[in-house]
Design brief:
14 helices, 2 domains, 250 residues, Serine Threonine Protein Phosphatase 5, Tetratricopeptide repeat
């Protein structure tokens, strides 16, 4: 549950920031962007070797493109060369410091590395940007970061900021439901999860949480219903395996 998105936001930002090529754009600039996009496409296919080849070519062609640097950070993170990934993410932000997507994506990386304070500051910077269309994403990510740092009150406040920005944002609803349950507020967690199910498809995480909530509230029928749904829809998930093994997760 307490995980920051690994790559999805970066894919979106790369596509958005690369944009169409200008008619007068130098061929090398265009080629670099195309190779960066190909690198991301190969990452999606889990072809890390080819992604590495494409991004290194893009960096040779034009290292001064923020989208190229951002995708390089993603590739090198997947390669587990984290210091090099950090350099590329930081370079992307230097090249495009007012792009809230770049800010948010570097913050994701920092929090995954355990640099919570720095990551949270960048998340909140992105959320406050007038040009950022989805502040709820940055606030929810900041909440996950705070939760990873064991700062539960701050995490709750940030998830509520995300919901203030967009009341039906599924990620914030699920995260806040899970956090509420962890803090012993099972009824509140049930209400939040109910809201989640009205705006998002069921997932292994949400159904597993529902089972645990209903068991804690003594509703065996509801717990069994969610358990059956989890086993039917996601039989190979870690959550389904835990339930088959008799692990409650409470």
């Amino acid at each position: 549950m307490r995980q920051l998105p690994a790559g999805l936001l970066l894919f979106a930002a790369l596509a958005a920031s690369a944009g169409p090529s200008a008619p007068s754009e130098p061929p090398m600039v265009t080629a670099a962007r195309l190779n960066a996009q190909l690198a991301v496409a190969y990452l999606k296919q889990n072809d890390v070797v080819t992604a590495h080849e494409k991004i290194d070519k893009a960096l040779t062609q034009n290292p001064n493109d923020a989208a190229v640097q951002m995708s390089a950070g993603l590739v090198y993170e997947r390669l587990e060369q984290l210091d090099q990934a950090d350099r590329h993410f930081a370079a992307a932000l230097r090249l495009d410091p007012h792009n809230p997507d770049m800010v948010n994506n570097y913050a994701v990386f920092l929090c995954r590395r355990g640099h919570y304070d720095q990551g949270q500051k960048l998340f909140e910077q992105a959320a406050r940007s007038p040009s950022y269309a989805t502040p709820e994403v940055a606030y929810a990510n900041a909440g996950v970061c705070a939760r990873s740092a064991k700062n539960l009150p701050q995490a709750e406040a940030l998830f509520r900021k995300a919901l203030a920005a967009r009341s039906d944002y599924p990620d914030a609803l699920l995260q806040l439901a899970d956090l509420s349950f962890e803090r012993g507020a099972a009824l509140a967690a049930r209400g939040l999860l109910s809201r989640y199910f009205t705006v998002a498809a069921s997932s292994p995480e949400s159904l597993f949480l529902a089972v645990r909530i209903e068991r804690s509230l003594g509703d065996a029928h509801a717990a069994d219903r969610y358990r059956s749904q989890l086993q039917k829809e996601f039989p190979d998930s870690e959550q389904a395996r835990q339930l088959r093994g008799g692990v409650s997760g409470e």
